[in-house]
Amino acid sequence: MVTSETPETSATEHQIGGIPLANLVRDFHLPMVKFACTLVNSPVAAEEAVQEAWVQVLKSSDTFEGRSSVATWLFGIVKNTVSRHRRHESRIRAHEVLATEDADPLSGRMHPVGHPDAGHWSIPPAKRFLPEDQTVARELVEYLRTALDSLPVRQRQLIILRDVVGASAEEAAEVMEVSAQAQRALLYRARGNLRNELEKRYRQ
């Protein structure tokens, strides 16, 4: 049951890795809910999972040893909390990361290996991606949210970790339980698909 009381009300004296727990709630609660939404079927279930995760954080705050970043630790707890409610689901399979038959979302839009400008755009993003005023900026944020929601679950999770939370490649791979190579491949695909979705909505 989701309550109106936030974990912050009982976290004023707790610290994790030298960071007050209230500050962690302030900075990570919404990203954690967003992440949980990719794992469950409803926003309510996601909020419940994160509330339960914060309870677990409070109980185990003294056990944090700093072997990973606080962010990695928090998102790991969210994932484990959700997993306890979904034990019927199978573990991650390789084809969820990058199926060889999938089309490259950026095919023909970046210079290939061997080209002097390899890794750079051959067809640059539309100029409309550069907001000129607050109205356009707000429009871009709304399009970004819609485009993010359209991505496959695994890709959406990784974008949240890498580009919203700011987790490193190693931290994201740890949370996602994938290899470094798989993380890079999935992130490439996720960012490419996100760009394509944005350009669909911005196409004049």
From TrEMBL:
Keywords: DNA-binding, Sigma factor, Transcription, Transcription regulation. Residues 142-192 form the RNA polymerase sigma factor 70 region 4 type domain. Signal peptide: none annotated. The keyword DNA-binding applies. Residues 24-91 form the RNA polymerase sigma-70 region domain. Gene3D superfamilies: 1.10.1740.10, Winged helix-like DNA-binding domain superfamily/Winged helix DNA-binding domain. One of its GO terms (biological process) is DNA-templated transcription initiation. It comes from the Bacteria. CDD domains: Sigma70_r4. GO terms for molecular function: DNA binding; sigma factor activity. Belongs to the sigma-70 factor family. ECF subfamily. NCBIfam families: sigma70-ECF. This is RNA polymerase subunit sigma-70. It comes from Mycobacterium intermedium.
